[in-house]
Write a structure and sequence with these properties.
Elements (H helix, E strand, L loop, with lengths): L13 H10 L5 H26 L5 H13 L4 E2 H8 L3 H13 L3 E5 L7 E5 L1 H21 L5 H21 L8
Antiparallel strand pairs: 1-3, 2-3
Helix pairs in contact: 3-6, 4-5
Length: 178
């Protein structure tokens, strides 16, 4: 069953905006506005990408797994490396892998060197489906970014990397809650 996309309002209601203006120091209002715009944009991107994936790989998580296996070529990828790459639990990866195996897109086998590990490989069907997903989603991606120049995309990427680093640094601060 397809997931219903989340919908966020374009901005807080006027009464909330006014109350925030009174509560938040003037110098912090631009950053607060950026956080709201960023969250809305992230949700809109998530909804779009999830929609694109529904017609190809199924979900973004499945696409990520297939991309790891596709890039690995014939060597395959240990399940534990997939857990690390997706930053999810082993149980989540086990469920995703079971579904991908049922669909005939991947196979998993015990590692000859370490029997505690499972190594995943992309099947021919999985490779064909993943490459079709790339082509199909590339068309949508180009359309989504058509209004930005290559320089603007580079600037946006740089700014987002810096912002991610700033938020990542927060988790190391004393008293920070996850």
């Amino acid at each position: 069953m397809p997931r219903t996309p989340h919908r966020l309002a374009a901005e807080p209601p006027p009464t909330v905006k006014e109350a925030l203006r009174k509560r938040i120091p003037r110098q912090d209002l631009p950053a607060f506005g950026v956080v709201i715009a960023l969250r809305m944009t992230a949700q809109q991107v998530e909804n779009a990408v999830t929609g694109w994936m529904a017609d190809t790989a199924g979900t973004p998580a499945r696409f990520q797994i297939l991309s790891l296996l596709w890039a690995s070529g014939a060597s395959g990828v240990p399940h534990k490396d997939i857990v690390h790459a997706l930053e999810v639990t082993r149980a989540t990866v086990s469920g995703l892998m079971a579904a991908l195996e049922r669909d005939g897109l991947v196979t998993s086998a015990i590692d000859r060197d370490d029997r505690r590990n499972l190594i995943a490989h992309l099947t021919a069907r999985g490779r064909a489906m993943f490459e079709k997903a790339i082509d199909s989603n590339l068309t949508s991606l180009r359309a989504a970014f058509a209004t930005l120049s290559a320089d603007e995309l580079g600037t946006l990427d740089s700014l987002l990397q810096r912002l991610r680093a700033g938020f990542a640094a927060l988790k190391d601060r004393p008293g920070h809650r996850r």
